[in-house]
């Protein structure tokens, strides 16, 4: 019936206790795998991008040394540049954003019995395997997040712990920009400044999980230095929209970097000739930042296309799309995110006949119990996006015709 | 190029059109006829701003014009050009001066005339070069091989630098980089990178274990192994007191993993007493004790001098662990070196081990990366730990490809590193010195430990001496050689050979070592205090 061989099982998996709803779908005539001449577009994440030829050339030509002895000139150059463009004193190259955030939290919260204030939808809280607690003995204290990615600033002094033997000690406030779970939202600059002001008034440092802060900077037209002004430290990823194979950077005060280097070593992030990876990051700073606007434009195109269908089952508003992430809402009574993702990975002969060019398969990620996430990136060109739009329109109309 | 001519008349700026401007000079014909402002005043300042290719950009022309005598006096002075800041010769020290016809040298803290030839002359001066060399915040990378270096007096020298600090300093070769660039990539966080999978399968097969996991460093590999074995709270690990895992991982297993350790005394050959192990295993019914969950062994044992652990002892240890019901982890950072030294396959060495950590970034010469090897179940847990530690890389196939290339092309030549190490040790032995000694029998792999007598020389001084060059030395050896080594204790200096060391490096290092040791032997006075 369905094209099982094309199903992408790795993203779906089995979630125990999940009820699969009755998904009524018209019968599709199967086609064999070898016949599939169409397009496969992967919009699961902007981490899947592969390095371009120019980037690879830069990596090959980089001067390298042993970074554990701090003798790698390319890593030094990257760190200097990142410190300059973020207006901080120093920077440190690390293998991943997870490690960047972990080092920052552990570096701020050095003493036993610490607590961190952060949003309940923060990546650090949800998707870093509780690293701060598991490895650092630090308790996260969550604040409800608003749909625009912010949280109520007044919650900070309310939830701040005062000195009492029953209480841990609050030592850090964490922000995220762009806010991933809320849909790649650019948090307002005045809110960041307000958080900084309040945090300073109660004596707390601010750390920004800026995995996609470059997207925020391009979308809002505000410089990185301005966005990060009130943040003492920040973690910035190169392996996402900027397209490098590996790597992130932490920025902050020089004294903090001494701690950060030690933490990086004990966690196992001390890489040797890391200059090859730093070269890719430098290349991306020179060539990949401005084109992020294209990814944002592509995201808008998809959101607009879904919105134009005015479907009861699949909705998305272009105003909710700030950067390169689109959260698509599904009617829970009609279709689950898993089923929707599965359907996007299937194609029937009728569909090929109607849409032409051999059909389109789209890989996306089920996000919450009622939403699906699309992420545009540099490996998804305008043609790919248009193919995705064609596919989406067909699938939405199909869904609407049944329900 | 558009030329803009402004005439300042009594303070007001009026644009002048139609003036004849040739090669930077200003003909005053139009002005003499009277300008748009009417009668020409007696004194007037004219500024000409125009872009002329390759010449002085801005000129100030002061003119005193009196109606009685038509006298033109032109004074040109060069203004500072921002383009100069991008030129290589001026980088790191040139900035704008106080006035626009001056430049400032930040290194000498001196104001200079803003003329390109002047600035070039200044940059070539001895004092400036000396100061620039001293104040350079990002010194050029330590280049193994022939290097041109500026000394404290600003004189350039041609040095042969032999970097024997560690086998991690190796540079990736052109062919290795080509393999990296041609690798097929995917996102390893989604387990979709084919090159990483190939590497993991290959190494698992090589060690005859079920599965492997690629991680950014050996420290992370060992940490993951310990934490995976010690999955439950209140665990304890038995580890050698001279092992890397205990001494040089920043206490990671305790700091990050909440795992306690019991050290066991390492013997000079890297092994430990198996009977003592029995005594250290905790009683699981005793609530005062943590639970012994793992025994660790290091092969080859680095602190003992890169010694390959005897095979039969490894088997005995394995049998003991089976008897006690404890898993055995092997820190095999330089395992391939051990297998070359023992003449047996790496799989045979770790036959009794439940998990192994193996480094690609040491003797094998890859830029980064290590592997954790174990059972499928073990690797599934290890993968989770890798993610929480921050080792989940995306297109890591690009560095895994270097590892694959290294296994094909560098692993077969590891015996050369051992030969070179023996040659270095031999040269020290031949001196029959009492100041610096080495036991040739102790050199199994690519590590040589030099012992200093702490009377004429200690480890730190020896490293400093090996890294400096005296005039007599360069006269006698007719070559300026710098050998870089690490002092790992007060009296021990470590030399590690690697794939970037060639015959001429060994030859030079040998000559240097002999010269320096000879120098110590001939010391007529005691330079260092004897602490009693």
UniProtKB/TrEMBL annotation, chain A:
Alphabetized Gene3D superfamilies for the sequence: Aspartate Aminotransferase, domain 1, Type I PLP-dependent aspartate aminotransferase-like (Major domain)
UniProtKB keywords: Lyase, Pyridoxal phosphate
Single biological process term from Gene Ontology: glycine biosynthetic process
Entry GO CC: cytosol
An MF annotation (GO) of this entry: L-allo-threonine aldolase activity
Record InterPro entries: ArAA_b-elim_lyase/Thr_aldolase (IPR001597), Low_specificity_L-TA-like (IPR023603), PyrdxlP-dep_Trfase (IPR015424), PyrdxlP-dep_Trfase_major (IPR015421), PyrdxlP-dep_Trfase_small (IPR015422)
Modification N6-(pyridoxal phosphate)lysine, positions: 240
A Pfam cross-reference name: Beta_elim_lyase
Aromatic amino acid beta-eliminating lyase/threonine aldolase domain boundaries: 42-328
The protein's required cofactors: pyridoxal 5'-phosphate
Coiled coil: none
Keyword Acyltransferase recorded: no
Keyword Lyase: yes
Similarity annotation: Belongs to the threonine aldolase family.
Protein name: Aromatic amino acid beta-eliminating lyase/threonine aldolase domain-containing protein
Lineage: Eukaryota, Metazoa, Ecdysozoa, Arthropoda, Crustacea
From TrEMBL, chain B:
Similarity remark: Belongs to the threonine aldolase family.
Sequence intervals crossing the membrane: none
Basic residues: compositionally biased ranges: 122-132
Ranges for domain Aromatic amino acid beta-eliminating lyase/threonine aldolase: 163-450
Gene Ontology cellular component terms for the protein in this record: cytosol
NCBIfam families: GntG_guanitoxin (NF041359)
Alphabetical UniProt keywords: Lyase, Pyridoxal phosphate, Signal
Pfam family, one: Beta_elim_lyase
Cofactors (names): pyridoxal 5'-phosphate
Protein name per Swiss-Prot or TrEMBL: Aromatic amino acid beta-eliminating lyase/threonine aldolase domain-containing protein
UniProt-listed GO biological process terms: glycine biosynthetic process; L-threonine catabolic process
Organism expressing this protein natively: Petrolisthes cinctipes (Flat porcelain crab)
Stretch list, region Disordered: 122-145
GO molecular function: L-allo-threonine aldolase activity
Keyword Signal: yes
InterPro entries per the UniProt record, alphabetical: ArAA_b-elim_lyase/Thr_aldolase, Low_specificity_L-TA-like, PyrdxlP-dep_Trfase, PyrdxlP-dep_Trfase_major, PyrdxlP-dep_Trfase_small
Signal peptide from the UniProt entry: 1-18
